[in-house]
Task: inverse folding
């Protein structure tokens, strides 16, 4: 895996955090991480700074990849969806 970009920068337009799915607003500082994955595939991720920090605390997760937008902001916990408890099962 080759890292092309790994830095904090200011958003020039609105983005969506790949970690938590929340918006990164224009003018906000965010973390840009661009790598060459397998087969010259190009992967780019934009993260809130706190989300990036959370992701980096688990190197295996970053290595193996993760499901985008599936975490709570700044946390390694998966998002809790406010679904009704499944009480329909008989
Ligand atoms: Zn985020």
Result:
């Amino acid at each position: 895996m080759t890292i092309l970009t790994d830095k904090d920068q200011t958003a020039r337009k609105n983005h969506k955090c790949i970690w938590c799915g929340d918006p990164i607003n224009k003018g906000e500082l965010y973390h840009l991480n661009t790598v060459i994955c397998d087969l010259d595939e190009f992967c780019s991720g934009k993260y809130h700074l706190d989300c990036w920090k959370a992701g980096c605390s688990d190197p295996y997760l970053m290595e193996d990849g993760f499901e985008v937008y599936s975490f709570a902001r700044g946390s390694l916990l998966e998002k809790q969806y406010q679904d009704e408890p499944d009480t329909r099962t008989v």
